[in-house]
User: Fold this.
Amino acid sequence: MLNLQSLSAFERPSALSLFKNGALFILSCLVIRFIVVSIYRVWFHPLAKYPGPWTAKISDFHGAYHNVKGQLHVESARAHKKYGSVVRQGPNKLIFDSVTALHEIYYSKDGVQKSYGYETMVPAPGAYNIFTAVDKGIHRFKRKMLNQGFSDQAIRAFEPTMLHHIDLFVRNLVRAPVYNDDNEGWSPPLDMTERCRHLEYDIMGEFGFGQSFQLQTKPDNHFLIDATTATSHKAGVIIQYPRLEYTQYLQLDKLFYRKGMEMREKFLRLMARLVKERLSADKDSQNDLFSFLIDAKDPETGRGFTESELWAESRFLLIAGADTSSTALTAIFFYLTAYPECYATLVSEILSTFSSPDEIESGPKIASCRYLRACIDEALRMSPPISGTLWREVCPGGLEVDGNFLPPGIDIGVNPYAVHHNEDLYPDSYTFKPERWIPSDQNPKEAVERARHAFSVYSFGTRACAGRNMAYMELSDAVAKTIWYTDFRRAEGPLGKVSAGVVGAKDGRQRVKEFQLMEHLTCSHDGPFLQFKGRKGRGQELFKI
Ligand code: HEM
Assistant:
């Protein structure tokens, strides 16, 4: 007899098996889709002819993975050595490492625009800042406005505030030592990453909000560094793999990164308080961005920044100005202590140029310090504070770069770290040689010009760094003052090796005289640990600050 019970059980599958079959079906579809898309990307895509790692050809996961590990810049240099001067670094992405490509891409007026990745950093619809504005009209307006805050006159007016923080920085270096006979007056090892970060964030707090975060004097706001670092780590990954932005809707941060969320809340509360306090003070009470820009107008349209636009720029400048300059300053300390002969030449230049610390400020004396400027540029070349590729999207009509016709919609760029370590452009590129920036009998003017043409630390064209002059002012004043007051050296033992490459390490991390950066939009690093000793008879005035 027919068993009706077993038949109905056979005909009506359980909810669990329905779910399993459904999931299996969806998974199979996804796998088939992945295989089909990968085949298309590897063999039939318009960029199929360009060489590169196969992982990069099939997915942007390649860039995101190396960015999470902080090594995409090193990976880019390695890829150029292996595959040549054009490398496919994503299904839709090409990187180049020639001077012509640098100029053809970043100086191009209509051929490119900032890539979609920048838009993923916009916190709310329409809330662009100068860095995230992809639209050229919006950017032009913001740039015209901000340029007024970065005029020579404005940054010279801000310099005394900057110098006050630099004095605090040097005072804390010479005050740190527990002087005793054993260490001959040398301080205990000090972590320069931390010291330089605190200095630069305090300076940018003054510039952007008219107030110091007091990181150099109190620990209360130290969380600020972790909060901004977490923001740039996340942005760095998403800019490489923009589709990951959709995972934000799942609010995974709330589940897995509760501490980060709390820090962000604290950060926003601090910013809100600073804005409120600045607004309650007289607008001309500080030489800060607010005072320079609140009444500024676009000469063509007569429009100015709204207050909220201005504060958005100030928040952006915190990362753009502080993270970059602090990496640059830390790198300079690293290289000067890795190359004692360069340190000695610089000390002699500074001590023979300035007879008093008050002379260390913008002007003909500091401008005459050619070796100082060469050391700064060489540290920036060796370890660019923005080491990642600045992606540009090819606009309708396409663009020709190094003789390659590139179709619209693809992302292209030149990786600054890779181009700065292209041996054809910078021979002996992993050696710190400030002399390469100074014309001499051994180094003709043409060689210096060639080096300058490929120097892409601030980028080129309309989107190049707006704060470049201010960065040079900070770096020159800080290095010159530190040398005027102190003698410094690398700590001995294991601490002295922090931030250096490690012999035998893989993937380009083996050079002991190279400052190691972890690239995440801006860069993370640790160390170097240095010891300081005040120069005899100098520094009494610092203790009165
Ligand atoms: C050594 C220090 C610095 C380095 C290496 C650096 C590097 C850069 C780079 C590479 C860009 C282009 C970014 C892109 O195309 O996506 C940029 C943009 C920018 N930087 Fe800097 N920067 C430094 C310091 C500063 C400082 C101190 C400030 C301001 C106080 C600043 C303000 C800006 C602004 C406003 C932009 C956006 C420019 C635009 O899109 O029009 N930077 N910077």
Observations:
- The pocket of protoporphyrin IX containing FE is lined by residues 130-131, 143, 146, 207, 317, 320-321, 324-325, 328, 385-386, 390, 457-459, 463, 465-467, 470-471 (CB under 6 Å).
- The chain is about 50% helix and 10% strand.
- The longest helix spans residues 307-338.
